[in-house]
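Case study B.
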Amino acid sequence: MTTVAPPPAPPRAAAAPPIVEERPPRPAETGVWIAIGAISMTFAALTSAMVVRGSAAPDWRHFRLPPILYFNTVVLLASSAVLEAGRRRIAAHLVRATLGLGLLFVVGQVVAWRQLAAQGLFLATSPSSAFFYVLTVLHALHVVGGLGGLTYVLRRLSTGGPAPATALGAATLYWHFMDGLWLYLLVLLALRV
Amino acid sequence: MSHASPNPRGYERVTAGKISEIKHHPPHTFLRKHVFSLDHKVIGKQYLDLALVAVCTGMLLSWLMRVHLAWPETSIPGLEKLSPNGAAGGVITPEYYLSLMTMHGTIMVFFVLTTAPFAGFGNYFLPIQVGAEDMAFPRINMTSFWVTLVAFLVLVAAFFVGDGPPLSGWTAYAPLSAVGKDAGPGQGVGQTLWAVSITLFCVAQLLGALNFITTTLDLRTKGMSLARMPYSTWAWFITSVIGLIAFAVLMPACILLILDRVAGTSFFIPAGLVISDRLQPHAGGSPLLWQHLFWFFGHPEVYIAILPGFGIISHILPVFARKPLLGPRVLIACLVAIAFLSYTVWGHHMFLSGMNPFSATLFSVPTLVITIPATIVTLLWIGTIYGAKLRFTTPALFCLGFVSVFVSGGISGFFLAQPSIDTYLHGTYFVVGHFHFVMGVAAMFGIFAATYFWAPKMFGRMMSETLGKWHFWLTFIGVYCVFMPMHYLGLAGNVRRYSAFTDDYLKPMIPLHRFITIAALFTGAAQLIFLFNLIRSRFRGPKAPDNPWEATSLEWSTTSPPPFDNFGGRPPLVERGPNEYGIGSGARGVDYLMQAAAAAPVSTR
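Model:
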């Protein structure tokens, strides 16, 4: 075993293809895209489970979605619009507003769960309520994760931390996805539950 | 956020787009250096250490099972202390046998075959091989390891609480896994711990995959195009894509399982189910749904275990063959094809599940198709060796061993892919022999090859070649003695998952089982050579040069072990792919070209 000095540059190396200049990589954003892929897969799995379970036995109990869900939808959509404006201007107060709206959405979801419980619809009552709780709670947890991300971005914005725009961009992307995912869930639940 | 101009020495600081938290400084406290470290190299070693503990645990469990199979009446000293009910007087009960089997499978598949070749070596070497300072998200990376560790502890805790570990197998088939206590010892707390552990494991691996993919896509150094990435990096990258999708499905499945167990839902438990003379208070669930969700993860998981091995072998073989790997682009195309097809074959685990027999045909076809890229990859390795003046080092031997066991185990897969043949073989030792060869032993050989190959880089010390060769030959002969006879047992109709073969028609098999048990004890003992070699060389081995194997990829352009930021603050400039071996009679007798530009980076140590 000998140490070999790195070989001298051979003539072939001259023919190396020129390095193509790409867009500067933004790992945070790439990471969010990948997370979006994984989260989509999780909800796709639950969707298929819901379809299979629905046809497995005749015990599916349909119920009306709590109307507050539609209010929550508006809140979440508004938060996304505010955050988009905040991203374009890199404005901390708009991010704070998003944080408030996001919290309001989560509180609204909790109200929806309590309303269902008041109607006697619990997790184990029927497969329909089970899937309702699983899907909405899992989504809400992801929203809470987004709130954590926004808090982190805010800290960076306020302390003049590095590259706040990149972090804000990534957080915004994630937040928009939470929107889209919620719209999908709302349609799914409205149609099947 | 801009490219700094290249400095005259051919290196440049790649700062483009890197958020500055990546540029962490070397830690100073012991805790930050060795415990809660953000350094991908430390995290990689932590994963490997965890896998080492896990593999020893898993192997001990297999020993217990094997001894019991060969001598069912034998009392195993000390076992009664671990489980007073499961092994009263040291003799394993049928239930406890299933518990051991479940824990063996779960520990090996999740905490060894996923943790070591993918999370462990991938963590350590993927960033270095693409020329990055660290993973894209070091904090997420650290979280990923610690969650994995907690998952492991939660799983092992099942031995010590309630009435022991679950007995529903590593696949945790519902409704057995879903109904709780009534289903048998270990199906209470034990099974819940299992489900929680696997949920945590999924989260950890999702975070890991996120890091691997982002690092590969965004943190490659100047000149490291995708086409120039080493094959091991390609394999880890593709594996993380598979993992991202697979674990994202198993996680919600485990959540539903937990809810069935603790919250009274009925996702997987059918109506009117009577277990242990008790009508289960659930209705309408679909046990088949669990199998679909599980195997949608489970089959890709097989490739999560073996693809890193593919990459490692493809990376190492050319080094010792001193020849470029045959058909590198074909290799990558095959890996991608396997990754894609791995999502279309899960039903071949369920031929006997009661699903529509027509679906069996549907799943059989892609199962046969996936053997094509796997075969091509094998032929590429053999073609690479053909005509080569092979350097028979220990890592090279383990590469050859990998090809051997992968072929041996793979061929039995052809038979199992046929629903009609599988109907007979599915419940027998044929399947046990098949998957232990093709997934277990092959992946282990990949891990061994990687360990012997990269230990000099990781620890700065060479491992003993003599001990390594002893380890290889004993292991190689040993695993064939253990797993080859299982195929014959299966053909003879020897059912699996039985704790003893005392029925009339099974009695004649016992001598062969004794042979297997002795071989398993022998092969396991041979691993002590490896352990000794690993630990001794870590402290006492001869100092390793920077590039002991005369290899080309970036990890060999830096010091052994690499400095904190991998390249001493000067990321390498990559000029060519990793496949430049056997370059005529190069100057100074050098027959290969490093991927990085001329000068080696300066060590900052």
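Residues 28-52+68-192 of chain A form a domain with the Four Helix Bundle (Hemerythrin (Met), subunit A) fold (CATH 1.20.120.80). The remaining cases will be described in the next quarterly update.
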